[in-house]
Design goal:
This protein is an all-alpha fold. It contains four helices and no strands. It has a domain of 66 residues. The protein is 60% helix and 0% strand. The chain starts with a helix and ends with a helix.
Length: 96
């Protein structure tokens, strides 16, 4: 039984600790979460990294995450994805 449980809880074994979002980051509104996660000191590798951290938090919450909190986190993720796409378009238009 213990082996099965450890497979289900794979996320507990993640040991990478490269960035530290401030405490209670994921408890705010979608715009606050997106603003915080977009900062260079929180996501030094860019907006894609911020989106992955939010998705990781959603996965980590699992069934214990309320529907409203999950919806807010998904909104924050979409905000960051749109921002990344706009940035990519701007950079592409400059290189023409």
């Amino acid at each position: 039984m213990a082996i099965r449980r450890s497979k289900r809880r794979w996320v507990r074994q993640v040991t990478t600790d490269s960035t530290h979002p401030p405490k209670r980051t994921f408890a705010g509104s979608a715009s606050q979460i997106a603003r915080t996660m977009a900062r260079k000191d929180v996501s030094p590798k860019g907006l894609g990294s911020a989106v992955r951290m939010i998705q990781y938090f959603i996965n980590r919450g699992g069934k214990g995450l309320s529907a409203t909190r999950r919806r807010e986190l998904e909104r924050a993720k979409r905000i960051l994805q749109r921002r990344a796409a706009a940035r990519k378009r701007r950079l592409a238009s400059r290189s023409r």
